[in-house]
Amino acid sequence: MTAAPHTQPVRPVRLTVVSAGLGEPSSTRLLADRLAEATRVALAEDRVETETEVVELRGLATGIAHAFVTGLTGDELREGVERVTDADALIAVTPVFSASYSGLFKSFFDVVGMTDKDALAGTPVLLGATGGSPRHSLVLEHALRPLFTYLRAVTVPTAVYAATDDWATADDGLTPSLPRRVARAGGELATLTAPRATTGSPHSAAPEVVPFEQQLAALRVKK
């Protein structure tokens, strides 16, 4: 009798969505939800389930300010940070102010970095932003992507910017519509995230770092 091949169980992917929208309802939250749904659909095609949690930063604004002044994080802020750092994948969306991410968005990820500078190392991240004009779309590349590169996260190639007119604009043959960009970005995040559902930890083990002096000494020995 031939034994059945061993297959490693696939656990649900922990997807955390961070929205820095200030209004209610918010176009920032709307974009975040659509990106999360596109990711869920793409993962479902690979028969991977998704557990999605949302961190609304506007409700944490006071706690974030308090953390900067006192160095202490309250329970609600700590829970939000843990949802982000424990995630298998992250979707981060901010409104654009003064041609950059919002101060609330940046301050929250500063708190994440203060809690553990390596907390997001290796985590797949899908970036999104909303604004009134398409002129600010490069905020994704000159502001958001460098921020998450510094945090050593892995950002997906397609970042999604939604201007006011994008919500009702169809494909024109040159520029993909917002739904197409959302679907493509969600698919890319799913591709990076699906293998993590078969591991016990959302973060891969960090390679051993050899001090520079030791590396030089090893070269001298070889000579």
UniProtKB/TrEMBL annotation:
<keyword id="KW-0560">Oxidoreductase</keyword>
<dbReference type="InterPro" id="IPR051814">
    <property type="entry name" value="NAD(P)H-dep_FMN_reductase"/>
</dbReference>
<dbReference type="Pfam" id="PF03358">
    <property type="entry name" value="FMN_red"/>
</dbReference>
<keyword id="KW-0285">Flavoprotein</keyword>
<feature type="domain" description="NADPH-dependent FMN reductase-like">
    <location>
        <begin position="14"/>
        <end position="165"/>
    </location>
</feature>
<dbReference type="InterPro" id="IPR029039">
    <property type="entry name" value="Flavoprotein-like_sf"/>
</dbReference>
<protein>
    <submittedName>
        <fullName>NAD(P)H-dependent oxidoreductase</fullName>
    </submittedName>
</protein>
<dbReference type="InterPro" id="IPR023932">
    <property type="entry name" value="CE1759_FMN_reduct"/>
</dbReference>
<keyword id="KW-0288">FMN</keyword>
<dbReference type="InterPro" id="IPR005025">
    <property type="entry name" value="FMN_Rdtase-like_dom"/>
</dbReference>
